[in-house]
Amino acid sequence: MIFHSILLECCNRIQMERTASSIYHLLRGRRSIQTVQDAHLFQLERYFGIYKSLTRQHFNQTMNELQLKGLLHRIDTEQTFYQTTRETSKWIATNKQVSFPFTSYEGLAYHEITDVFLDRLVLLIQTLTNSKMDYFSFIPVIDKPLIVGWVKSVYRRLKGEEAKFLAIIFQELRKILHHFSKVEAGIFVDRLTGYQSYGMSIDQLSAKYGQSVDDIQLIIINLVHRLLSTLYHEKDNYPFLTFIINDLTSTTRLSNSAFQTYQHLQQGVTIENIARNRNLKINTIHDHLIEIALYETNFPLHHYVNPAEQQEILNAVKQTSSSKLRDIKQQVNDSISYFQIRLVLALQHKQLK
Amino acid sequence: MNQQVTLEQELNKHFHYSSFRLGQKEIIEDVLQGKDVLGILPTGSGKSICYQLPAMLLDGVTIVVSPLISLMIDQVKQLKAIQIKQVVALNSFMDPSERKKVYKNLHAYKLIYISPELLQQEEIIRLLQRTKISLFVIDEAHCISQWGHEFRPDYLKLNMIIEKLNNPRTLALSATATPTVQQDIIDLLNKPKMIKHVYPMDRSNLSFCIEEVSNDQEKLEYLTQHLKTYHVSTLIYFSSRIATENIAKLLSEKLPERKIAFYHGGMEQMDRITIQQQFMNDQLDIICCTSAFGMGINKGNIRFVIHYHLPLQLESYIQEVGRAGRDGKSSVCLLLFSNKDLFIPLNMIKNELPSEQILTFIYKYLSRLVSERKELPNNEVEIANLFQLNEIQWRFLRFQFEKHGMIANNRINFQEEKWKQSYQEIKQLIKDRTSIKEQKLNEILQWIHELGCLRKNLYKNFQPAYSMVDDQCCSNCGFSWSEWNPVQTKKAVNEEADWESKLRKLLLMNAL
Fold it and tell me: What ipTM score was computed for the predicted complex, to two decimals?
């Protein structure tokens, strides 16, 4: 029911403003400026990238199911615009598990480090427990090169003191898991792999805890987000768990390409010249600027949109009470571009926060 | 004598085995002497040692062509697990930056696994030409023959590649190849002097049992009944992913005391490793799986291999049942058959190759690209999606288009006459391939309805005779369940501990 609740909540916020694809991209955490901007616009930042393995097929299928149940109303057959129905709020009231902390998701903040944290922890535990038992022919459950590389480098430093560090991990995990319900802590521990004991697959967890495969994954992500949030606030209580993500917190949130554009801008290169030098379209550079605007605290908006234009755009937003770019564009002077509207929208919602 | 001692010592030093298994040493000795060898060794007999040990002993790099990426990756993991680190699996799914790093250092590896598609790329060929190749291995060599059970057109180009690499000694390996396929391998590789080492694939500790039922409901009842009696390590093979999930669920409900899971190629990587290793570790009793499971897995005590659906040919059936009883103890291979099942393999055969309709569509599409002066998209998956083909179908067609000179490096060469001719040829080829597959299916149907000894007829196309049977032979020679009494798995003490004790046990181990 967690997955269904989240989908319905997203539809409730978005209604006719976007097609269902925007929800799909939001949950998968697509790194496009449109998706990030939508997350801010509809105040769905916390669900950004919380279900990265979601497939298009499964998403469509689930939306259809919700429609068949009368919880969603599809507007036209060509495009996937959905409206919530009268039944939706009733359903949410009866089915949404009150005890489940939907508001604790922090997708936009943690989506990049969630998997890394979990993968590193899982593989490190598998490595240390096996190494402690002098058993080196185990098959690692994680085979992503970046994770394996990190665990190797850490293992080199901890080798010989496995017992000591396993005891520290035990103490810290025990302490932090006490913040969670018995079921949540159970799921987390059942997923771990040790010496001659392999953790449970998502399907096995689903069968054991009587939750759908979707919900099990969403429960784990929710749990990790809360765990990461605890780590940020109580670093000193969890030195080892904090160490696992220490090197990640400082990484810039800009995409690589946007970062390059940012560096050029700081050297005073114009948008046109950046596009020419980097052999990119002007539109792409505009996307980078919006990405930069979303993250940069002192973004010089007036360089790109003068105060009068800003006001005109804001008025149009109020008038149309819509966030569809086309509707807004029709309300403003022809000389104002889509790029300018998007930039103002991006910053407007940032300031609202 | 001296060399004999050395070889066994080397085997022990690198792989921690004290002695060779049947056939390994003979093949390795010939390889080390620089001869070209064709080795036919049954599944589970340690085929890979035949090239892994020479790779360690020879100066230079050993190249292994393998058709299945998951198999390559498994092999590399297992080698790394026993501290053999100079190995790598090169395939098109690899991260490009990762691949570049490997390319810079090819000579530093002892063993390079590579997919046949990747070997078509000029870049890698150029790099390999500058590297000392001591041995060229073709795993699953039956893929080169259209009479083999998994014909791979990419394999046909291997003879040219071997030539380009200055003819290193070549070792072709397969678990199942009839004499016709063996001759095909030698001819198509253009190595008439290849030395053949062929070992029988019959297994004296396996009993064969075919049970005809009228529908799926009866299959489930039959399974439940026998799995209740026999608490042993069990594999159940299915021909579809969804069936593995459904039956695993139904069986779990009927047999709550058994630990049952499913496994197929559509699962997340971490879950696949997890399920596989739980089974290896005896944390699971029964796995419902597709043919994706089992390759490269060596578990001694699998007692029971069941086929819920009809396999597509005898070759894959022999490979799959070959996973039972590797420890030499009496094991049973059960095939459940219902007349209603027939449409499944027929559909699968149809789907393996593009239909005539699709072929026509693709020709039109290609002509349009030509008239718009466009190239093919770079991304293989994108192309497959565009034409609504699965990956296997597109690979087949791409090879044909290249062979007929219609495409080269994504550029399309249009010549009306030639295209008309190639269209007819490809259409005919699809017909031929389909009829070969139907023939293979007929073979297995004939075997199922066989009145004589199942064992004799299963192996008759592969070897002239079979060895004495240890226990019961087959359901046609007389098979009784009551006489099969394998050692049962000990009932696990199912203490459901709370999370804290579990965590303690997992991390502190001794402190419980």
Answer: 0.77
